[in-house]
Please model this.
Amino acid sequence: MPTFDFIDLPGIQTLPEEDRIQTERLVNSYISDPNTLVLCVVEGTDAVLDKGNALRVVIDANKLGSTILALTKSDKVHKDDTEDYIFKRILLKSGTTPAHLEGLKGCVAVVNRKHQDSALTLEQAADKELQVFAQMLHDAEGEYKAPAMQHQLARSMTSKQLMVMLNKMYHVHITGKWVDETLTLIADEASKVKGSLQKLGAEASSVGAEMASLNCKVCLPVCLPDCLPACLPACLHACLPACLPACLSVCLSDCLFVSV
Model:
């Protein structure tokens, strides 16, 4: 089963040159992995989104389609700049989002916890953040005052919505890419094992098929409720030659997507 690990990478150092090279190499070693999903953090108060090194590395790695942008310090944006710095950006509207950033998976505005908030529980901090954006939406003008638009904006505000967006990106990645690639890999391995058994002769292939059939009859009823964590390792060991593809098609379709 895939895991969802959060890895806090260091910021790209500009000077000295040796530090810049080392930090860029470290970051690239992670984001170059096709199964890496990127949460890129930039300050919402920045007039130019892509002026920092973080977004440059993402662009160079061609990872925009697997990247969500988090606009921090959104509560520090001047009221007169809210439309351009917050609203248009989280809607990924052209003009505030450079053309080469339009492939971003999403953009979410968040509020940083302050030192004086250290005594607050996570729930209290979340409520305080929600109040900031509620006031921001209340003060909106023009087209951003429409209920439908307010609802759309609210879906890209707060740390909670950031987690929702990350979870959705993860789910799409697993169901749309990881599952197919993994099934193909397992099928290839099954084919190799079957070929090895055939080289050992008809008797070995017959015994392997009988063991696989017996094992699946025993483990499939157990495998369906708990599936991958409990008995798939045993199933993988014994079932590859004959019936693993069928077993996986049942198990994965029934429980992998629920797990995700």
Q: What stands out?
A: Residues 214-260 have pLDDT under 50 and may be disordered. The longest strand covers residues 38-43.
